[in-house]
């Protein structure tokens, strides 16, 4: 097997030291051979060539950046009692390290509940959520280009699946986590812009049947958003997993079919 090239800072410094020594020997030879008129110019050029680049010196002086420590992963729902599908999905995420080093959320649409996790799989918190008015697991075509007034009731779905989410602000300047930016689906504080919708009361209700009211976004209780959600999801990319309600679980998350964890 061919040995890999050693490009460590120590080997780089050793290389330049050897090259410099060789050039200095050459300079000494020039002193003996060249005429006096050319000697000074050749010596200056050789000395300049013997000087290693500044970037090489800096690279040799700086130690290599340490690798981040491994994450000790273990699923922990705390005192929560999630559905079997939510637990199965969470177990797969943790065991497969599908979230990488990022926090993740699991949204159970049937139970109208969100579970927030640290990258390790430890629960941050859970809360009821408001979801899209219409049942379904896909975005309506072109939904992100429509105004709210143009979106029909049957198009107001919360899309199932794995979403790479990023924090940002909406058109009103409010903090949101963009779950699907192109479809304008986000997670944000509950807003009571229309008192007739009774959004705050719906969140407080013990039943999940009245939590379908939004245009597709996921509404969180304001206090939960500020105390638990935004401190962990507001400054970094995260992964949001939304369980399906119409499609089979394995259709939306086919990797679960080969997993033996959390079944």
Notable features of this structure?
single chain; 263 residues; alpha/beta; L,D-transpeptidase catalytic domain-like; 2 domains; eight-stranded mixed β-sheet; 10 strands; 31% helix; disordered N terminus
Describe, in short, the structure shown.
The protein is 31% helix and 19% strand. By secondary structure, it is an alpha/beta fold. The longest helix is centred in the N-terminal third of the chain and has 25 residues, at 9-33.
Estimate the strand proportion. Answer: 15-25%
Our count of domains comes out at 2
Q: Can you identify the CATH superfamily of the largest domain?
A: L,D-transpeptidase catalytic domain-like
Main sheet makeup: 8 strands, mixed
Give the low-pLDDT segments. Answer: 1-9
Number of helices: 7
Strand order of the largest sheet: 3-2-1-10-5-6-7-9
Q: Using the alpha-carbon principal axes, give the shape.
A: globular
User: What is the mean predicted local confidence, pLDDT?
Assistant: 84
The second-level CATH architecture of the largest domain is Beta Barrel
